[in-house]
Write a structure and sequence with these properties.
- The chain is α+β, with helices and mostly antiparallel strands and 252 residues long.
- It has a single domain, classed as GHMP Kinase, N-terminal domain (Ribosomal Protein S5, domain 2), CATH 3.30.230.
- It is built from 4 helices and 9 strands; from the N terminus they run E-E-E-E-H-E-H-E-E-H-E-E-H.
- It has a 5-stranded mixed beta sheet. Strands 7-6-8-9 form a 4-stranded antiparallel beta sheet.
- Strand 2 and strand 3 form a beta hairpin.
- The structure holds adenosine-5'-diphosphate.
- Adenosine-5'-diphosphate (ADP) is lined by residues 89-91, 93, 100, 135-140, 180, 183, 191.
Amino acid sequence: MNSIFTEEKPEVLIQEDGTRIDGRKPDEMRPISIEVGVLRKANGSAYLEWGGNRVLAAVYGPREVHPRHLALPDRALIRCRYNMAPFSTEERKRPGPDRRSVELSKVIREALIPAIFVERFPNTAIDIFVEILRSDAGTRIAGITAASLALADAGIPLRGLVTGCTVGKIGKWLVLDVGHEEDMWGDADIPLAMIMETQEITLLQSDGTLTPEEFKEALNLAIKGCTYVYELQKEALRRPYVVVEKEVKGEV
Ligand code: ADP
């Protein structure tokens, strides 16, 4: 079976006319599909396909805190676990937490907290699980995008949905929604997440060097990507209600 990944460095990551290794234009996103409310036992959930990424997010709570001494008297305790399934990568990943998953659990948690009205739920816990079933670059922003929908699906009051997107730098080009080979071999990778309603940026990382002009351009490109993803998030949240409305009207 052909692998979707090229593990050896490709000779050309982006052509002179801006055509990328997977055929996309510099500002073109990978295909995305989202479904909300996929898990019966969780209070809220979402399943996201983004390029080759397959991400499941689940939210439990607000609920009693265990162990009890962790409870916060003035706000909800937000806990987050990002986990990559052993079968999610090309090489089998060792199950269980590692340094990377601990870091990503932290950045995802911190990207989501500013959107949550935590002060409305003192002495409770809200647990967020992000499971990467298949990984294809950009799992942290895919995880944030799915988790914010799971929070909304759980009925947790939010300042807005948190939406993520990445921008990369390959030679002279800035590219939207970094793919696997671009992530491995490109010059920079900038994941960004923001609360769309307030335009507050809640995650911004960078693993490369950009000029101030490039950085400004990268930011605008990432916001453009987020705006696109945000529309898909809203559509996914609305979809179950549209089906019910059609059923009530006898249209299905
Ligand atoms: P992100 O997934 O947010 O882009 P990274 O930049 O750390 O985070 O990872 C980029 C990609 O590298 C991942 O999406 C995944 O496809 C791959 N990857 C990450 N960790 C591993 C691992 N332990 N084994 C194999 N592939 C991995």
